Amino acid sequence: MSNKINHSMSLAKPDAVDISNKQKIALAIGIIGLFILVLALFNTHFPNQGLFLTLSLGLICTGIIIYSREAYLTKLEGIKNDSVWFKSISSRGIWGWIVGVILTSFYIVLYFFPKYLGLGTDGAENTGLISLFDPLSQLLSGRNASQWFVYGTLYTVAILAFGYKFILKYRHNRYQQIRTVSVMFFQLGFAFLIPEFMYVMNNDLPYYDLKSMWPLNYYIFDEWSVNGFLSTGNIGLALILFGIITIFVISPILTYKFGKRWYCSWVCGCGGLAETAGDSFRQLSSKKMSAWKLERWLIHTVLVFSVVMTTAMIYTYLGYDKNEFWLTRGLFIALVIGFLTLVFAGVMYFKGKEFGKDAKYGAIGFFVVIGLLLVMHFTGGTNNIFYIKAGALRSAYGLYIGSIFSGVIGTGFYPILGNRSWCRFGCPMAAILGFQQRLFSKFRITTNGGQCISCGNCSNSCEMGIDVRHYAQKGENIVRSSCVGCGICAAVCPRGVLKLENDSMEGRINPTEILLGNDVDLMDLVNKK
Q: Assuming Cys at both sites, which of 219, 359, 366, 491 could form a disulfide with 355, CB separation 3.0 to 4.6 Å?
């Protein structure tokens, strides 16, 4: 009999839930697969790299599948968020910090020190971990692997294996199953296989993830990328036009009809990894008001930075002489400022009331962007923008946003900040889609306050830090710009209070305040309803 003193007042078991023998075997199988990758990292020579790579990835997937089936198929269908705050790995315990440190270290090495992964330079052969993936890369595209191919492979395997786990966990909810299959499909096909096949068809084409659009795909408008596309003829031009049409036509239409969930929860690779491999950490997102304020300032600051940097990238390789370049630097800046002004004026005119007090912050952001673009135009030279070398400026966005924020912090900090810290605080694509969703979308999550029992399952499971219970208790629609429409709040609600809907714009935003009998004519209020 244990003599351990239990100081917990919880009715639930305060210790981590024990795992079965079958799950222990599954963990052992998965660890063996990871161990092969670790051996490769330390330059272990394998007699047959293709065989050992297959064995490693196969063991990892097999371990995850066996563990998941034992964890969920032995239980009844329904809510599965029990014990998440009693497990070290999912409650910022010691194992959570260990995993966070390992992931963060991997991303730092991947982005900034790929030679330690075995990347061959100056024509040298790959070694270490990267060389283990050479057979797969040769099979798909006929070239040796790079650190990005290794990352893409592991990324895809993680989404597929943990996607299966996610489907088992939420097998009572058809919406969750369908959208998980969707992100698995887009990651495997559009992000991993198609770019490799495109290289086989035309190896001059720059890498292009068809489902990734600006500002996530920030490099599509860089000079080397544009020149690479244009040098490949009609197919390259078609890809550039597809990217532009996606930004200004396809995305707004889909967001209007379905909200930002069409991308963030059904297509996006960042969201796909967060929903599958990061599902165990969704409850770690902060629900504090201070976190919400930080989120709003930070994500829109990144968006401003993205707009200015992208404009600067294009600006640097345009000319001055209209006889040589029909799109001169002056005309380009005028078009960008005109477009932003048109958007700002239209939003303020048609949606100014819904903005409320936030309108002044939107105005500040608009004038900051316009001011920076004008300064860039009147101070920029042939090789300098903002008195900084154009090459260094073009790499700034990729380094600080594309690498450090989205990779090192966004994914490496899953066990510390939750699985959507990048989507919530830094993704400029999420900021654009969230703006459209808040003001111009049919999507909302409706609530039935009369059925809410304040269990808190919805708020606990919200990966975007939304206090869903606060809205549910008042019967108020959830139309937050940060909501990615994952639907987990509805899936874990035991009373069916929450429902994802696409309906008319009228009555979509319905703020309700607590009313006192002396403050309102109740009959007049009923008649208005």
A: 359
> Which residues contact residue 96 at a Cβ distance below 8 angstroms, ignoring those fewer than 6 apart?
88, 89, 90, 281, 415, 416
Distance of alpha carbon 132 from alpha carbon 487, whole angstroms: 39
3-state secondary structure 50-116: HHHHHHHHHHHHHHHHHHHHHHHCCCCCCCCCCCHHHCHHHCCCHHHHHHHHHHHHHHHHHHHCHHH
Q: Could you give the angle at the alpha carbon of 407 between the alpha carbons of 401 and 408, nearest 5°?
A: 100
Tell me the pLDDT tens digit for each residue of 267-323: 998 999 999 999 999 999 999 999 999 998 999 988 888 888 888 888 877 765 565
Give the pLDDT confidence of 234-276 residue by residue, as tens digits.
888 888 888 889 989 999 999 999 999 999 999 998 999 999 9
In angstroms, the first-to-last Cα distance of the chain is: 62
Whether pTM exceeds 0.85: yes
Say what the pLDDT of residue 508 is.
Answer: 80
For position 14, what pLDDT does the model report? 55
Helix, strand or coil for residue 493?
coil
What pLDDT was estimated at residue 243? 86
Q: Tell me which residue has tokens 């390259």.
A: 236
Distance CA 277, CA 99 (A): 12
Sorting pLDDT into bands at 50, 70 and 90, what band is 211? confident
266 Cβ contact list (under 8 Å, min separation 6): 179, 182, 183, 186
Burial bucket for residue 187 (CB in 10 Å: 0-12, 13-18, 19+):
buried
Instruction: Find, among 455, 452, 501, 506, the residue nearest to 478 by Cα.
Output: 501
User: What sign does the CA torsion over 436, 259, 433, 415 have?
Assistant: positive
What SS3 class is residue 385? strand
Per the CB < 8 A criterion, the answer to whether 429 and 300 are in contact is no
pLDDT of 62 above 90: yes
Instruction: Report the 3 state secondary structure along 8-59.
Output: CCCCCCCCCCCCCHHHHHHHHHHHHHHHHHHHHHCCCCCCCHHHHHHHHHHH
Alpha carbon distances (Å) from 306 to 349, 426, 491? 25, 11, 35
Give, as one character, the DSSP assignment of residue 426.
T
Between the alpha carbon of residue 71 and those of residues 60, 63, 169, 364, the distances in Å are 17, 12, 8, 51
